[in-house]
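Researcher: Here's a chain I'd like modeled. Treat it as a single chain, no partners, no ligands.
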Amino acid sequence: LKPSACPSGRTAPVSGIPRDVMMSPAARRRLAVAMALVGAQLRVGGGVPVKSREARKACSYFQQASCLLDTAEKVCEPDEDPLPLLNPKTAESVWMCCCAMPYEPCDRSELDPFCESTLRRHLNRTVKTQAAMLEGVQRARGALLSKGGPPCAEALAPMEPMSACGRERSLDREDLFCEMLVWQLEELGDGDEGEFERNGCPYNAQDRALEGESRTRKNGKLQDKANLRYHVLSPT
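Model: Modeled as a single isolated chain. Structure tokens:
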């Protein structure tokens, strides 16, 4: 390969370092190691930006909105019927997203009122198909972000454009998928580094929830001590 010309008229080898600014072999090795480390960090860091945990938690509906993305992933599972998730008696039903800590068992009377009314509006008995449920989940999440104001708008991915189910991953929109993966890692202890890397999502093993912290948020069901008959399923 021939050296390329620099704007100054000097020539540079393929490495891009001018010939009259040559580095010692030891310096070149240090530079190579530094560049390799930067490359590794970029690969682990992913190509899709996800705001810091502190910034996301500043959104008052961070937990609920993130849980709805988790539900969206379940909606997009191939060969699975997602409609049972609309039933409050189902394990990890969509209604559990309205608990203070999603998927951690809570009583029907403890659901966040605005979250519950939002689900009643967008995910009621009129939802009959996978496509309708996926849209309803995203619109419900969008309503929560709007209710949460600037802290939510600044820290979490916007509702639009609406995402379809993806071919290589559950959600076609990469920003929504990455935001969901990070929440699952931090709150539920789920996810592996390979999945993050394949989808360009930021990964930090130190952020993984400990098993003792997340086991109460697995396969939980909504409680109804007051026997309210789950009227939340009725359309408004």
